Amino acid sequence: MPAAAVFPSVVITVRVLEVFRRLQLRCPRVGVQAFMRTLCDLHGVAPCGYIVTQFTVAFDIYPILAAVNKCVQAALGRDTPDWCLKNACPSCMYKLEGEAEIPLPFLATIDGNNSLKRFWGREKAVDVDGNIVPGASRERLDTCVPAGDYYLLREEVDKWSKEGLEDLMRNFVPGSQEEGSAGDEGAGCSERWQNMKEDATARAYGMYDEMGIFPALCRHGFVLVIVDMVKSGELAKYGFAITAHLICVLGKLGLGYDIGCKFAEMVCMHPALAKLAADNDFKALVGAFHGHAHNRRCQLCNLTTYVHGVGLEDLEGCEKSFSKSNALAATTQYATVFHRQQAITSYLRHADTADAYQGLCKLYLTSFFFTLTTSTGVPSRLNLATLSKEPLQETLEIEHYQKLVNLRDLERSELKPRHAIEARDKTLAVVTDLELRLNIARRWEDDGDDWIRVNRGYQRAIDALEGLVVARMFELPKVNMFDTGYKLRKHIAKALQAHSKGVKAALEIAPLNLEIPRLVTHMADEDRFLIYHERHLTREGNPALAHQVAAHRMEWGRFNALHMERLVKLSKEPGCTASITPSVSVNKERRVPEEQDIEMPDVTAVVPPPEGAEGDIDEDNLDTELLIDSFERILVMSDDS
Known about the structure:
It holds the Pfam family KDZ. By secondary structure, the chain is an alpha/beta fold.
């Protein structure tokens, strides 16, 4: 790639650019300056400042891959608006025919992150008091936009601000919002959260233009949509814009947010968003990690722990994503608007493919085993509780002994009125029944061995019971005293927590039974679809584009064998009811014409792991191996030159 449009004197090989691109995707902290200085060290030349600029120019030209990918998507018929959003997660969105309904069919989470700020290049100015203040912008106008449709346009987001509310009010019908539908469950929570107070977050800092990002992710970690927080903190307009976009494209939605209680109230009171949310059964939730900062009434209504249909999902995927994406801050703080968005979208696209998609089945394995151990814990405790009861044989013998005593007393009575005779007859009937159940051929006598044995056990049980009653009577006055009864309260709390986890674990089985067949069907349909179009483009005389489709299929399908290995392992576990056989999708766009006879690889076939391989590959070791391999290639290139 040339470093200048006219008369270039320096060129960068495509292989070096690809190494840097792959390296930066795996380790976002690596910037152009560090990479170029490494190349200078390898070639034995002194680093110069202009080399970084030349490499940046060449790297801007290199994303011609984005244009190639755009051609591939157009050839596959995937260039329609919001196609990527509708197909972001195969487990969430690839619905099958005849599958059961669940209370919350789609769960997502949103949150703001101010780590990916960008400095605003401005001139220095002096105010009337002689103080230096930020002046006019010195950044050049850049109309370039990053590839893909992750980002919502700023103009679309600004429609949901206070200033843009007038345009939305034109379609507002009075009374359409459900007044009070959010209730006052979150009353008192707003004072605890600074990101609820727009007067505290709307301040535009002169040194920054973009203050961070505000993404939306599905429950499996796939990025759905993202907006930039421009010259402000975490405003309500970002949540409104994303919520409206997701509802319009995806329909029914459960959305996790750290201020979900207040956000639900604001949505219900919004003149343009209330009706849209009500028609699609929108539900705002509070993530499990942020529940401690909400009052008890709010937790019972909005916290994921207590909402029916959420299962074991905590809706805290944004925090997990931020822990990785924060590494981009070092290379994007001083970048241009385009370069910053380009780096963010490239990283997110790679994270969806290499992290979220790769970890789907591992997530299923973790969820299933946790669900299995949690749900089986409740029957185990119930079984343990039944052991505290005496065996049936012993209980019947004690009851038989008591009835015999009553019968002897009634028979010894000198006066036998009618009620005594009736009582004796009833007792005799019970004694006879017990003798039949215990297989007693001869009735026990007062001085018999069986009578003496059972009488002794009965008296011991009575003595033990009396001792427990007396001890309990002495303990009761101290129950509410300070520093007493702690162990009992602890046992009760643990029992309630175990019961709650068991109930939620049972609810987690239903989503797993839906999502696992979706993933298997998606892998089979996608592979067949791509093979068909690859051959179709070859027959039409476009082998170059067919080659790119094949490369896309190989890049996408490199984790399928790993998925099936984990799913087969999961299907063999006792208690797993999910099917790993491909089914029929509701979406018809991946269906290949029936007259085409295509030999398909069996997605359920599992490739055995190599000898000596144990468990999953550690991510840190994988990153290290990739780095070593990349630099070895650079060394080879430097030797060739």
